[in-house]
Amino acid sequence: MPVVWPTDVEGRAGFRVWLRYADGSEGEVDLSDLAGQGVFEAWTDAAVFEAVVITPHGSIAWSDAIELCPDALYLELTGTSVEELMPGLSGPDDS
């Protein structure tokens, strides 16, 4: 489950998504670097890109084959670091 739950999503021109999260954060994230690559080839059809939804488990999705992590999008949107979003999370080198 996401750390911060997405509440609204909208596909916009230029492979941008507008997002709103439960904490009130909102804005656009540019996904153009993914467009046209692998499964993201489907986005070249504007109708497919604009059909973005929030799944019951909180992912940002266009189909069963294309889902993005809402936490990663939140970090991109807000400029928050992983450490700020998930305090106490430690990696293998953090003793």
Structural overview:
With 95 residues, this protein is an alpha+beta fold. The protein has helices spanning 46-50, 70-78, 82-85, and strands at residues 6-12, 16-21, 26-30, 53-54, 60-61, 67-68. It contains 3 helices and 6 strands. A 3-stranded antiparallel sheet has the order 1-2-3, covered by helices on one side. A 3-stranded antiparallel sheet has the order 4-5-6.
List its traits.
three-stranded antiparallel beta sheet, single chain, alpha+beta, 95 residues, 6 strands, globular, 3 helices
Q: Summarize this, please?
A:
The chain has three helices and six strands; from the N terminus they run βββαβββαα. It has 95 residues and is α+β, with helices and mostly antiparallel strands.
Number of strands: 6
What global shape is seen?
A: globular
Structural class, by secondary structure, is alpha+beta
Uncertain regions spanning at least 5 consecutive residues: none
What's the alpha carbon Rg, rounded to whole Å?
14 Å
Q: Order of strands across the biggest sheet? A: 1-2-3
| Tally of separate helices | 3
Estimated share of beta-strand residues = 25-35%
Q: What summary fits the major beta sheet? A: 3 strands, antiparallel
Mean pLDDT reading: 91
Terminal CA distance reads 26 Å
- N-to-C SSE string, H for helix and E for strand: EEEHEEEHH
- State the helicity in percent bands: 10-25%
